[in-house]
Protein backbone atom coordinates (compact mmCIF):
# COMPACT_ATOMS: atom_id res chain seq x y z
CA UNK A 1 0.00 0.00 0.00
CA UNK A 2 2.90 2.38 0.79
CA UNK A 3 4.45 1.80 -2.63
CA UNK A 4 1.10 2.48 -4.31
CA UNK A 5 0.74 5.72 -2.35
CA UNK A 6 4.23 6.97 -3.25
CA UNK A 7 3.71 6.31 -6.93
CA UNK A 8 0.23 7.81 -6.84
CA UNK A 9 1.38 11.08 -5.26
CA UNK A 10 4.01 11.67 -7.93
CA UNK A 11 1.71 10.83 -10.86
CA UNK A 12 -1.21 12.77 -9.35
CA UNK A 13 0.91 15.88 -8.86
CA UNK A 14 2.23 15.82 -12.43
CA UNK A 15 -1.08 15.03 -14.16
CA UNK A 16 -3.05 17.50 -12.04
CA UNK A 17 -0.58 20.33 -12.69
CA UNK A 18 -0.48 19.65 -16.43
CA UNK A 19 -4.28 19.71 -16.64
CA UNK A 20 -4.44 22.89 -14.55
CA UNK A 21 -1.84 24.63 -16.72
CA UNK A 22 -3.82 23.61 -19.79
CA UNK A 23 -6.91 25.25 -18.25
CA UNK A 24 -4.96 28.43 -17.47
CA UNK A 25 -3.77 28.70 -21.08
CA UNK A 26 -7.30 28.00 -22.34
CA UNK A 27 -8.86 30.67 -20.10
CA UNK A 28 -6.23 33.28 -21.00
CA UNK A 29 -6.80 32.68 -24.72
CA UNK A 30 -10.60 32.68 -24.25
CA UNK A 31 -10.65 36.07 -22.51
CA UNK A 32 -7.66 37.56 -24.34
CA UNK A 33 -9.85 40.10 -26.16
CA UNK A 34 -11.19 41.35 -22.79
CA UNK A 35 -8.17 41.15 -20.50
CA UNK A 36 -5.20 40.78 -22.80
CA UNK A 37 -2.59 38.45 -21.34
CA UNK A 38 -3.94 38.39 -17.77
CA UNK A 39 -2.26 35.56 -15.90
CA UNK A 40 -4.02 36.42 -12.62
CA UNK A 41 -7.49 36.04 -14.12
CA UNK A 42 -6.42 32.84 -15.87
CA UNK A 43 -5.17 31.31 -12.62
CA UNK A 44 -8.21 32.50 -10.64
CA UNK A 45 -10.85 31.37 -13.13
CA UNK A 46 -9.10 28.05 -13.77
CA UNK A 47 -9.00 27.32 -10.05
CA UNK A 48 -12.80 27.39 -10.05
CA UNK A 49 -12.50 24.19 -12.12
CA UNK A 50 -10.59 22.46 -9.32
CA UNK A 51 -13.08 19.53 -9.03
CA UNK A 52 -12.32 18.60 -12.66
CA UNK A 53 -8.58 19.02 -12.04
CA UNK A 54 -8.69 16.70 -9.02
CA UNK A 55 -10.76 14.04 -10.78
CA UNK A 56 -8.49 14.13 -13.82
CA UNK A 57 -5.37 13.85 -11.67
CA UNK A 58 -6.79 10.93 -9.68
CA UNK A 59 -7.94 9.15 -12.84
CA UNK A 60 -4.69 9.41 -14.82
CA UNK A 61 -2.47 8.76 -11.80
CA UNK A 62 -4.34 5.60 -10.80
CA UNK A 63 -4.23 4.25 -14.36
CA UNK A 64 -0.44 4.63 -14.41
CA UNK A 65 0.06 3.30 -10.88
CA UNK A 66 -2.08 0.23 -11.53
CA UNK A 67 -0.41 -0.53 -14.87
CA UNK A 68 3.06 -0.20 -13.35
CA UNK A 69 2.66 -2.01 -10.03
CA UNK A 70 0.31 -4.80 -11.06
CA UNK A 71 3.28 -6.30 -12.90
CA UNK A 72 4.86 -6.80 -9.48
CA UNK A 73 2.09 -9.27 -8.60
CA UNK A 74 0.27 -6.85 -6.30
CA UNK A 75 -3.33 -8.15 -6.06
CA UNK A 76 -6.01 -6.11 -7.82
CA UNK A 77 -7.93 -6.04 -4.54
CA UNK A 78 -5.15 -3.89 -3.04
CA UNK A 79 -5.68 -1.28 -5.74
CA UNK A 80 -9.43 -1.26 -5.12
CA UNK A 81 -8.87 -0.86 -1.37
CA UNK A 82 -6.53 2.03 -2.05
CA UNK A 83 -9.01 3.47 -4.57
CA UNK A 84 -11.85 3.35 -2.05
CA UNK A 85 -9.80 5.38 0.42
CA UNK A 86 -8.89 7.83 -2.35
CA UNK A 87 -12.51 8.26 -3.42
CA UNK A 88 -13.59 9.02 0.15
CA UNK A 89 -10.81 11.59 0.66
CA UNK A 90 -10.95 13.32 -2.71
CA UNK A 91 -14.71 12.96 -3.11
CA UNK A 92 -15.20 14.74 0.21
CA UNK A 93 -12.62 17.37 -0.71
CA UNK A 94 -14.31 18.02 -4.06
CA UNK A 95 -17.67 18.49 -2.36
CA UNK A 96 -16.26 20.93 0.21
CA UNK A 97 -14.44 22.97 -2.43
CA UNK A 98 -17.44 22.96 -4.79
CA UNK A 99 -19.73 24.22 -2.05
CA UNK A 100 -17.45 26.88 -0.56
CA UNK A 101 -14.37 28.04 -2.46
CA UNK A 102 -15.54 27.51 -6.06
CA UNK A 103 -18.68 29.74 -5.83
CA UNK A 104 -16.59 32.54 -4.31
CA UNK A 105 -13.95 32.25 -7.03
CA UNK A 106 -16.63 32.36 -9.73
CA UNK A 107 -18.11 35.48 -8.15
CA UNK A 108 -14.68 37.17 -7.99
CA UNK A 109 -13.92 36.29 -11.60
CA UNK A 110 -17.37 37.46 -12.73
CA UNK A 111 -17.01 40.83 -10.96
CA UNK A 112 -13.53 41.28 -12.45
CA UNK A 113 -14.95 40.73 -15.95
CA UNK A 114 -17.81 43.10 -15.15
CA UNK A 115 -15.31 45.78 -14.09
CA UNK A 116 -13.36 45.29 -17.28
CA UNK A 117 -16.52 45.65 -19.39
CA UNK A 118 -17.57 48.91 -17.71
CA UNK A 119 -13.92 50.09 -17.80
CA UNK A 120 -14.17 51.38 -14.26
CA UNK A 121 -13.29 49.54 -11.04
CA UNK A 122 -15.90 49.03 -8.33
CA UNK A 123 -15.50 50.67 -4.98
CA UNK A 124 -15.36 48.27 -2.03
CA UNK A 125 -19.00 48.99 -1.20
CA UNK A 126 -20.14 48.58 -4.81
CA UNK A 127 -18.33 45.27 -5.05
CA UNK A 128 -20.05 43.99 -1.90
CA UNK A 129 -23.46 45.15 -3.16
CA UNK A 130 -22.96 43.54 -6.58
CA UNK A 131 -21.79 40.30 -4.99
CA UNK A 132 -24.88 40.27 -2.75
CA UNK A 133 -27.14 40.99 -5.72
CA UNK A 134 -25.78 38.23 -7.95
CA UNK A 135 -25.55 35.80 -5.07
CA UNK A 136 -29.36 35.90 -4.88
CA UNK A 137 -30.01 34.88 -8.48
CA UNK A 138 -26.96 33.03 -9.87
CA UNK A 139 -26.92 29.46 -8.57
CA UNK A 140 -23.34 28.88 -9.74
CA UNK A 141 -22.26 31.34 -7.06
CA UNK A 142 -24.36 29.89 -4.23
CA UNK A 143 -23.71 27.28 -1.58
CA UNK A 144 -26.12 24.35 -1.38
CA UNK A 145 -27.89 25.99 1.56
CA UNK A 146 -28.57 29.12 -0.51
CA UNK A 147 -29.57 27.02 -3.52
CA UNK A 148 -32.18 25.23 -1.39
CA UNK A 149 -33.62 28.56 -0.25
CA UNK A 150 -33.63 29.84 -3.83
CA UNK A 151 -35.31 26.65 -5.10
CA UNK A 152 -38.00 26.89 -2.41
CA UNK A 153 -38.83 30.45 -3.46
CA UNK A 154 -38.98 29.35 -7.12
CA UNK A 155 -41.27 26.44 -6.20
CA UNK A 156 -43.64 28.79 -4.38
CA UNK A 157 -43.66 31.24 -7.28
CA UNK A 158 -44.16 28.39 -9.75
CA UNK A 159 -47.25 27.12 -7.93
CA UNK A 160 -48.68 30.63 -7.79
CA UNK A 161 -48.11 31.18 -11.50
CA UNK A 162 -49.68 27.85 -12.43
CA UNK A 163 -52.81 28.86 -10.50
CA UNK A 164 -52.96 32.15 -12.42
CA UNK A 165 -52.48 30.32 -15.74
CA UNK A 166 -55.16 27.76 -14.89
CA UNK A 167 -57.65 30.53 -14.04
CA UNK A 168 -56.86 32.41 -17.25
CA UNK A 169 -57.38 29.26 -19.34
CA UNK A 170 -60.93 29.06 -17.99
CA UNK A 171 -61.67 32.43 -19.60
CA UNK A 172 -60.56 31.35 -23.08
CA UNK A 173 -62.81 29.36 -25.48
CA UNK A 174 -61.81 25.82 -26.44
CA UNK A 175 -61.35 26.74 -30.10
CA UNK A 176 -58.75 29.39 -29.22
CA UNK A 177 -57.02 27.11 -26.73
CA UNK A 178 -56.68 24.30 -29.27
CA UNK A 179 -55.37 26.59 -32.00
CA UNK A 180 -52.99 28.74 -29.93
CA UNK A 181 -51.53 26.27 -27.43
CA UNK A 182 -49.73 22.94 -27.79
CA UNK A 183 -50.83 19.69 -26.18
CA UNK A 184 -47.68 19.80 -24.06
CA UNK A 185 -48.70 23.16 -22.60
CA UNK A 186 -52.25 21.97 -21.95
CA UNK A 187 -51.01 18.83 -20.20
CA UNK A 188 -48.46 20.86 -18.22
CA UNK A 189 -51.20 22.97 -16.66
CA UNK A 190 -53.89 20.29 -16.50
CA UNK A 191 -56.28 22.09 -18.85
CA UNK A 192 -59.59 20.46 -19.76
CA UNK A 193 -62.46 21.70 -21.93
CA UNK A 194 -64.55 24.60 -20.65
CA UNK A 195 -68.06 25.78 -21.51
CA UNK A 196 -67.08 29.03 -23.24
CA UNK A 197 -67.83 29.45 -26.93
CA UNK A 198 -66.60 32.68 -28.54
CA UNK A 199 -66.92 35.50 -26.03
CA UNK A 200 -63.63 36.34 -24.35
CA UNK A 201 -61.34 39.26 -23.58
CA UNK A 202 -58.27 39.53 -25.83
CA UNK A 203 -56.38 40.98 -22.89
CA UNK A 204 -56.83 37.68 -21.03
CA UNK A 205 -55.31 35.79 -23.97
CA UNK A 206 -52.33 38.15 -24.09
CA UNK A 207 -51.83 37.84 -20.33
CA UNK A 208 -52.12 34.05 -20.55
CA UNK A 209 -49.38 33.80 -23.17
CA UNK A 210 -47.20 36.15 -21.18
CA UNK A 211 -47.68 34.14 -17.97
CA UNK A 212 -46.81 30.90 -19.80
CA UNK A 213 -43.57 32.46 -21.10
CA UNK A 214 -42.71 33.62 -17.59
CA UNK A 215 -43.51 30.20 -16.15
CA UNK A 216 -41.39 28.45 -18.79
CA UNK A 217 -38.41 30.61 -17.79
CA UNK A 218 -39.15 30.03 -14.11
CA UNK A 219 -39.30 26.26 -14.62
CA UNK A 220 -35.95 26.36 -16.40
CA UNK A 221 -34.43 28.34 -13.51
CA UNK A 222 -35.79 25.78 -11.06
CA UNK A 223 -34.34 22.91 -13.08
CA UNK A 224 -30.98 24.66 -13.25
CA UNK A 225 -30.89 25.22 -9.49
CA UNK A 226 -31.69 21.56 -8.84
CA UNK A 227 -29.12 20.37 -11.39
CA UNK A 228 -26.41 22.68 -9.99
CA UNK A 229 -27.02 21.31 -6.51
CA UNK A 230 -27.03 17.72 -7.72
CA UNK A 231 -23.83 18.31 -9.72
CA UNK A 232 -21.99 19.10 -6.47
CA UNK A 233 -22.88 15.64 -5.18
CA UNK A 234 -22.40 14.01 -8.58
CA UNK A 235 -18.80 15.23 -8.89
CA UNK A 236 -18.00 13.56 -5.57
CA UNK A 237 -19.55 10.24 -6.63
CA UNK A 238 -17.83 10.58 -9.99
CA UNK A 239 -14.51 10.24 -8.18
CA UNK A 240 -15.44 6.71 -7.09
CA UNK A 241 -16.47 5.73 -10.62
CA UNK A 242 -13.27 7.15 -12.12
CA UNK A 243 -11.18 5.32 -9.52
CA UNK A 244 -12.76 1.99 -10.47
CA UNK A 245 -12.47 2.78 -14.19
CA UNK A 246 -8.79 3.72 -13.79
CA UNK A 247 -7.97 0.44 -12.05
CA UNK A 248 -9.61 -1.74 -14.72
CA UNK A 249 -7.89 0.28 -17.48
CA UNK A 250 -4.50 -0.09 -15.80
CA UNK A 251 -5.04 -3.81 -15.20
CA UNK A 252 -6.09 -4.45 -18.79
CA UNK A 253 -3.37 -2.39 -20.47
CA UNK A 254 -0.46 -2.87 -18.09
CA UNK A 255 1.99 -3.61 -20.91
CA UNK A 256 1.27 -0.41 -22.82
CA UNK A 257 3.54 2.63 -22.90
CA UNK A 258 2.83 5.49 -20.48
CA UNK A 259 1.93 7.74 -23.41
CA UNK A 260 -0.66 5.22 -24.64
CA UNK A 261 -2.14 4.87 -21.15
CA UNK A 262 -2.42 8.64 -20.77
CA UNK A 263 -4.12 8.90 -24.18
CA UNK A 264 -6.63 6.20 -23.21
CA UNK A 265 -7.30 8.04 -19.96
CA UNK A 266 -7.79 11.39 -21.71
CA UNK A 267 -10.29 9.86 -24.16
CA UNK A 268 -12.33 8.22 -21.39
CA UNK A 269 -12.23 11.33 -19.19
CA UNK A 270 -13.29 13.62 -22.06
CA UNK A 271 -16.21 11.29 -22.80
CA UNK A 272 -17.20 11.47 -19.14
CA UNK A 273 -17.21 15.29 -19.29
CA UNK A 274 -19.27 15.11 -22.48
CA UNK A 275 -21.76 12.89 -20.67
CA UNK A 276 -22.07 15.49 -17.89
CA UNK A 277 -22.66 18.24 -20.47
CA UNK A 278 -25.34 16.17 -22.21
CA UNK A 279 -26.93 15.44 -18.83
CA UNK A 280 -27.05 19.18 -18.17
CA UNK A 281 -28.81 19.77 -21.51
CA UNK A 282 -31.44 17.20 -20.61
CA UNK A 283 -32.09 18.03 -16.96
CA UNK A 284 -32.14 21.81 -17.53
CA UNK A 285 -33.58 22.20 -21.03
CA UNK A 286 -35.27 18.82 -21.49
CA UNK A 287 -33.19 18.23 -24.63
CA UNK A 288 -31.13 15.40 -26.12
CA UNK A 289 -32.46 12.44 -24.14
CA UNK A 290 -31.32 10.02 -26.85
CA UNK A 291 -27.83 11.53 -26.78
CA UNK A 292 -27.72 11.13 -23.01
CA UNK A 293 -28.79 7.48 -23.17
CA UNK A 294 -26.32 6.76 -25.98
CA UNK A 295 -23.31 8.31 -24.24
CA UNK A 296 -24.16 6.70 -20.91
CA UNK A 297 -24.56 3.30 -22.58
CA UNK A 298 -21.23 3.58 -24.40
CA UNK A 299 -19.29 4.42 -21.23
CA UNK A 300 -21.06 1.71 -19.23
CA UNK A 301 -20.48 -0.95 -21.90
CA UNK A 302 -16.76 -0.09 -22.13
CA UNK A 303 -16.42 -0.21 -18.35
CA UNK A 304 -18.25 -3.55 -18.00
CA UNK A 305 -16.26 -5.05 -20.88
CA UNK A 306 -12.96 -4.09 -19.23
CA UNK A 307 -14.15 -5.52 -15.91
CA UNK A 308 -15.10 -8.78 -17.64
CA UNK A 309 -11.78 -8.88 -19.50
CA UNK A 310 -9.82 -8.26 -16.29
CA UNK A 311 -11.67 -11.01 -14.41
CA UNK A 312 -11.24 -13.44 -17.31
CA UNK A 313 -7.50 -12.81 -17.44
CA UNK A 314 -7.17 -13.28 -13.69
CA UNK A 315 -9.10 -16.53 -13.83
CA UNK A 316 -7.05 -17.94 -16.69
CA UNK A 317 -3.74 -16.69 -15.31
CA UNK A 318 -2.97 -14.64 -18.42
CA UNK A 319 -0.40 -11.93 -17.88
CA UNK A 320 -0.16 -10.18 -21.22
CA UNK A 321 -2.45 -7.77 -22.97
TrEMBL record:
Domain of life: Bacteria
Keywords associated with the record: Membrane, Transmembrane, Transmembrane helix
Transmembrane regions listed in the UniProt entry: 12-32, 44-67, 79-97, 233-251, 258-277, 289-308
Protein name: Uncharacterized protein
Amino acid sequence: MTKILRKFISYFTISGLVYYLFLVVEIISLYFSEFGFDLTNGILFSFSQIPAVINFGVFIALILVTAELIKEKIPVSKFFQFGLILSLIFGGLIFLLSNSMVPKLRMTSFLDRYENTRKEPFTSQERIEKATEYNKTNVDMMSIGLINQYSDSLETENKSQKKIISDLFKKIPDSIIQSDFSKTELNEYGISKNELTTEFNRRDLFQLKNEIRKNTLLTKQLRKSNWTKNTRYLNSFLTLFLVCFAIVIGANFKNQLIFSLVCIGIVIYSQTLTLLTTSSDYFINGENLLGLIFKFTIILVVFLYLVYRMKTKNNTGANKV
